[in-house]
Amino acid sequence: MARRRSGNQLAFNDMLFNVLLGFVVLFVIAFLLINPITKKQDVPSKAEAMIILEWKNDSYSDIDLWLQRDDNSPVGFNNKAGQGMNLERDDLGSSNDRVFIDGIVTIIKKNREVINVRGVVPGNSYPNVHAYNWSETEPLTVKLTVIDVNPVYKEIYTIEVVLTRRGDVARLPGFTIDKEGNVGGVFNHTRTVVPNRGQTASE
After folding, report:
1. CA separation for the pair 52, 73 (Å, rounded)
2. By three-state DSSP, how is residue 37 classified?
3. Most CB contacts within 10 A, which of 1, 36, 74, 117?
4. Where are the beta strands (DSSP E) in 118-180?
């Protein structure tokens, strides 16, 4: 008799567990139907275009990215926003890459500056790169990438230039943004948009 009662008890527990599991599954399904999973295309874009400057990660040199829209004030480290553009980070080389992890100083070796174009403002854009501070014993190669982010991610161009000393300015190819926000129309220019700091020009 005891065995029979024990078997009945196990069967009852199994049935109770299955009923509970069924309720949980139904609840999860109902929750997903009420709050559908966000699709990638549903996430609003945060930029129309990105201009990315990179140089070797162990460098202590301070290289600055500047961008001017038509004849407006250029965006750079001392004017971080204007005409729908924002400098996201003023990277000073490795000197401002120090972080504290468990009380220990750690250097995150990543030299990168980014200007985001956050709104559709048609016109010509003129990028410059400036060697603001110099710690190299040899020429330094920097890379600039222009990307059209919205509505379709597309790399417009990537170019590498060599800086040789403090004050060097590289005038990199300009680009246009049309009324629909499309980035294109790459062109060469001779415009220096960096505030005058006794720099030398470099093509």
Report:
1. 19
2. coil
3. 117
4. 123-133, 140-148, 154-163, 168-171, 174-177
